[in-house]
Amino acid sequence: MPHNASDYVVANVLPKIGVVPPTSYTLNYADAAYIEQILHEDAKDYLYSGIISFANACASIRVGYYSWSTVKLYYAIFYMIRGLLANAGVCIWYMGNKPMILKAAAGQHMRKPPGGKKAGTTHGIVLETAKRELSNDVIFSQPIAGVHAVQWMRERREEANYWHSRFVEPGVPDHMEMVDQNGLRRLITAYLSDVLSFAFDPDRAIIAYPILVCKRLREQY
User: Fold this and answer.
1) CA torsion, points 192, 198, 203, 209, in degrees to nearest 10?
2) CA-CA-CA-CA torsion sign (133, 138, 139, 144)
């Protein structure tokens, strides 16, 4: 599926800029209203992708593939956080290979993403932008083991993908021990009933935090 809002900016807003620096261009009311509308449609697609990623992770956990499930759980929160940004009217788009941020509101200017080199990839741009634009959201209300929640999830993904020369299977990584000991179905049932009590606990966050982020995005519909 295309990123409809960013495609609209490239096809319809960028040609209006001409030789004016993009950061000097002021978004007009008509474009702002339409971008906001299609961002909400994009958010539904991100929610869908997040739910599919979460379900795929659960299927992997059931057969003991903890490394791959960790990667998919990270992707679940990435998609759903992008959905929260879209519903907040934040459009991430590319001018050539340069990322830009545009808030869907009349009078707003395009700006470079936060984070500098730290946000060099699309994932970095999305997560660093979310830290700023969604700083008051409950999903960022606490750290996990002293680390920003999205950074903790990202580190678990990088640990599974990059930190070791081989996957941990048939072993169980520390962040999955609670799942291995108690069973996925039991934990998900508990987390759904009171997710805030579990989402920032490092022993439980790998499952509970994606559930919290999904819950927040679903609430918006």
Assistant:
1) 70
2) positive
Q: Quote the CA–CA distance of 171 and 138 in Å, as a whole number.
A: 33
> Exposed, middle or buried, 66 (CB in 10 Å: 0-12/13-18/19+)?
buried
Q: State the virtual CA torsion across 215, 191, 163, 55 in degrees, nearest 10.
A: -60
pLDDT digits (tens, 9 = 90+) for 193-203: 999 999 999 99
pTM tops 0.85, yes or no: yes
Give the chain's length: 221
- Ranges of each domain in the chain: 4-219
> Is residue 116 left, alpha or beta, with left meaning phi > 0 and alpha meaning psi from -120 to 50?
left
